[in-house]
Request: fold
Amino acid sequence: MLPMNTPLWFSNLLFWSAQIILLVLGAGWLPRLLEIRQPRVLLVYWRALLATSLLLPLLEPWHEAKRISTIAAPLGFGPLPLASTSSPAAAHWHFPGLDLVAQTIGAVILTGIGVRFVMLALGLVKLRQFRQASSPIPASAGSTAVLDEMRVRASTLAEFRLSADVDSPVTFGLAAPVILLPERFSSMDSRFQAAIACHELLHVRRHDWAHHLAEEIVRAVFWFHPAIAWLIARLRLAREQVVDLEVLRLTKARKTYLEALLEFTAGRAPGAAVPAPPFLAERQLAERVALMLKEVRMSRTRLVASLTSIVCLLALTVALAVWAFPLRAGSSSAQSAPESAVQGGVSGGVTGGVSGSVSGGVAGGVAAGIAGGISSTVSGGPTRDIPTVDKTTIWTDKVKRGPMVRQVRGLGSLVRSDSGNLMARITLPEFMMKEVEPGQNLTLSTPKWSVKGHVRGLSRKISNGEGTVDLGLEEITLPEGAGAGLQLDATFDVEKLDNVLYVGRPVHSGEGASGNSSFSIFKIVNDGAEAVRVDVKLGRASVNTIEVLDGLKEGDTVILSDMSSYDNAARIHIK
Reply:
């Protein structure tokens, strides 16, 4: 459980990250457990898992930020004890430095995103420079015939060029794809040339550079999340394995292709420097070779059963992750501004990235989400010292002077007496029992009707801190259909106070034992633009009103709704 003053954007980012970790931990071992080794199936599986992880904020419900009920005090049995303003630490734990920690982490994440995108841009520039510095393969070269044959087999056109800047084949480009080959390619055995060319042409046919670039953008945005990096690595391995098997199908030269792979284990393209898939990544070598050396088969029935099991288990894992780490929407603008930036940024931006908008959908969304959360805390929005509250989320009342009827309220039902007559049996706290007397005005109500009368035939019983009051109904005419078992609210007019200062009863206020209790409340100032915290002394309380002894004057406007979220604030902005 995070501290209650954790910035909402930060807690949502942490919880979303935890959801992904839980999902990947639960789903990452399923293909191995069910012995699914088909690269095409795995490629679809890892893509679906990555998309699900990134889209979780859109797929799951956002919970309203929990707040203490604002209806408890007005509708409760009686006044609640006042919280002492001298000891707020007894009620809440506060972490005043958490905002600073969140801002620092957010700044580090944003800085990392910026650095990653700069590196990505430099890599694209370097690819362009490599292409400009490369040279076309002469038509008279011996490898030309091999390359032409592979273009026919792969049913794909692409330009082959020789480059002194790469040690391994590099394929990039969409409208005009280019395959850069190391200079030693011309001196290789024609069998190796055919295998290498077939591999790269298949990448072109599959538009794999676009997928690779999109994954680089996702990696740049989520560089801080190890589960995302792991998923992308598995996805890329599955893609290479798909291409490997297709090369074997087209060339029918397993041994030659394996030897071509091993030929490039010593020399590699600068994969970390350029955004293009390398011909061979050493960490993938063992799994790629192992797949090509053994036959992988699975019956259609078993494959369908395995995939069905995976879908069911994934659904359970997602449900568990969402239940364990729920994302929350702010209950006021002070909270919803960062949250909406993260929800609209992380979720919406990721959606754009996954669907192929590689020009900034992911980056703009997530970066704007984190930046929005930080900036709303640092400048132009709610701060630790002066938060902002939406006017529509609070209710207020003016301090008035005049007569005030003090009431107590209880809940009960209609029952039959020993003589068979209907009577009202009302439950009240023990300390309120003594205030109910015969002759007092009485209101009995249900959601559908309300009747007035006087207390008659009073009978009291006390047990375990609560009391029951049995009320005769001889002088009260109940609506037709009212019978034993009907649930009731009962309001008793116990005292009339003349010429007192009073106000609507704030949430969590109550009447102290001495009738002279302190209470902290926000008073509206600056024509409704702000509210400041003031200490007031409250006296006798009623169901919906309470006497003001000191700290406020007639005409003052105060906030009655629950403001426990701002216990550390001495002033708030209202908009």
